[in-house]
Specification:
about 290 residues, alpha/beta, Oxidized Rhodanese, domain 1, 2 domains, 5-stranded parallel sheet, 4-stranded parallel sheet, 10 helices, 11 strands, globular, disordered N terminus
């Protein structure tokens, strides 16, 4: 098979708002060429309509979730994924630039979805629309309509995910770790959302919102400091890391951070919704 001769973009995974603003006019001009970009906004729809990064298309996060017990955070069907990404105008040559209005939860989950469907060309706007507006960068209002494509999702790459069975089998492996992105009260069992409260045995708790700078537009905390902190908690590049929350939304952020730091990190889409409801699985409380 001949190699694809389409030009490709070389943008970093973590894209600062000012970086994107400086190149945005040129990137938008690529829309008429073989190399394409797709800016996806997963903010609340009202926020998107009020102001968004120029050229951005809105995506309702619910469309990338199964939405049914016992694993509401799991991926929907291949047919639904194909429909969503076709409506967005995704092609195999598209570079996706994603963001949200909450510091990276939904955007990070989108990156996990893209990994799972085999689309590896993407960037995250650090801090999303919050940091963009804080920096005084230009926005637009209203709603952009995508030019549809025919994107077919034919398989899911399971190497970016862990199942409950895989996690259970590795709980005593020193090279395995679990990053629980929920609140401290959920982790301890004081706050119970599923049938049972508590956490996966041995899991490390670091709530997702602690990883973003509330005073700096919800940007990810300085990476060197973040890396050192996580290493002190047993989360580093030497481990196979499963990350989860209640429905693999908040852990979209921790998945994103792990990728930025070069960790072998995978999402547990079943999350506590599944683990906490399964009486056969072990639980710790603290």
């Amino acid at each position: 098979m001949a190699e694809d001769s389409s030009p490709t973009l070389s943008l970093p995974l973590l894209l600062e708002p000012e970086q994107l603003a400086n190149i945005l006019p040129d990137l938008l001009a690529l829309e008429s060429s073989k190399t394409r970009i797709l800016i996806i906004d997963q903010s609340k729809f009202e926020t998107y309509q009020e102001r968004h990064i120029p050229g951005a298309i809105h995506l309702d996060f619910k469309r990338l979730q199964q939405g049914q017990a016992p694993t509401p955070g799991a991926l929907p069907s291949l047919e639904q994924l194909s429909q969503v990404f076709s409506e967005l105008g995704l092609t195999k040559d598209t570079h996706v630039i994603c963001y949200d209005d909450e510091g990276g939860g939904w955007a990070g989950r989108l990156i996990w979805v893209l990994d799972s469907i085999g689309h590896s060309s993407y960037s995250y706007v650090n801090g999303g629309i919050t940091a963009w507006v804080k920096a005084g960068l230009a926005t637009e209002s209203g709603q952009n309509i995508a030019t549809e494509s025919n994107y077919q999702v034919t398989t899911i790459d399971d190497s970016f995910s862990f199942t409950k069975e895989q996690i259970l089998a590795q709980l005593n492996d020193p090279d395995f770790a679990v990053w629980d992105a929920r609140s401290a009260k959920e982790y301890s069992g004081e706050k119970v959302i599923s049938k049972r409260g508590g956490h996966i045995p041995g899991a490390v708790n670091y709530e997702w919102t602690l990883g973003m700078d509330q005073q700096n537009g919800l940007k990810i905390n300085p990476l060197d400091d973040f890396r050192s902190l996580l290493a002190s908690m047993g989360l580093d590049e030497t481990k196979r890391i499963a990350t989860h929350c209640q429905t693999h939304h908040r852990s979209g952020f921790t998945y994103l951070v792990g990728k930025i730091l070069g960790f072998d990190i995978r999402g547990y889409a079943g999350s506590w919704a599944e683990w906490g409801d399964d009486d056969e699985l072990p639980v710790e409380k603290s």
